Amino acid sequence: MSTDIFRKTYTNTVEEPLDLIRLSLDERIYVKMRNDRELRGRLHAYDQHLNMILGDVEETVTTVEIDEETYEELYKSTKRNIPMLFVRGDGVVLVAPPLRVG
Amino acid sequence: MSLRKQTPSDFLKQIIGRPVVVKLNSGVDYRGVLACLDGYMNIAIEQTEEYVNGQLKNKYGDAFLRGNNDLMGKSTTRKTLTLYSDGFFSFKMFL
């Protein structure tokens, strides 16, 4: 068991996806969640379920309103800032370094 | 690449480094090079592009897709992994 932990900390052989997330600790990341939500914040902690602690977070919720008559789609996004956030892993779809525009 | 019997870990070693498309059941497509994959179907892809209908976002570097599941049973997020081979054949793996 202890050799397993040693390997996970010091290995440079093929790593699991979760090992690569470890490289993003203390960095800003972008998280895409279910229900059209996105988070941008600093990754403080994570686990195998992808539960995460994020600091200095901006959450963006995107909604689509459809006009009854014209059927046109109106995309709205709502943002809010949260200093420290626990994210439950089952809502997470994707984790990446912050997006560059374009 | 042959289709003889091989262990799952041999298979995983073979497909790493290949260009893939991962399609989620939400309809979003992620295209890139498969960096790694684990027994829980978590996937890391490099040079990822996200397609929803048309192209939406470009992600450079690694993108991690969460595997939702149970190893033996059904996933709540169905993912289709399509591997583009050297032209001899291609196959889809349902995750």
What is the strand content of chain B?
over 45%
> Which regions of chain A have little confidence, pLDDT < 50, spanning 5+ residues?
none
Q: Quickly count the helices of chain A.
A: 2
Let me know the largest β-sheet of chain B: 6 strands, antiparallel
Rg over CA atoms of chain B: 13 Å
What distance lies between the first and last C-alpha atoms of chain B, to the nearest angstrom?
A: 21 Å
Q: Provide the residue-averaged pLDDT of chain B.
A: 71
> Strand order of the main beta sheet of chain A, please?
4-3-2-1-5
The structure class of chain B reads mainly beta
Number of β-strand runs of chain B: 6
InterPro entries (chain B): Lsm6/sSmF, LSM_dom_sf, Sm, Sm_dom_euk/arc
Subcellular location (chain B): Cytoplasm; Nucleus
Domain Sm (chain B): 7-79
Main location (chain B): cytoplasm
Write the layout of secondary structure elements.
The complex is a heterodimer of chains A (102) and B (95).
Chain A: H1 2-10, H2 17-22, E1 28-33, E2 37-46, E3 52-66, E4 73-87, E5 92-96
Antiparallel strand pairs in A: 1-2, 1-5, 2-3, 3-4
Chain B: H1 8-15, E1 19-24, E2 29-37, E3 43-52, E4 54-65, E5 79-83, E6 91-94
Antiparallel strand pairs in B: 1-2, 1-5, 2-3, 3-4, 5-6
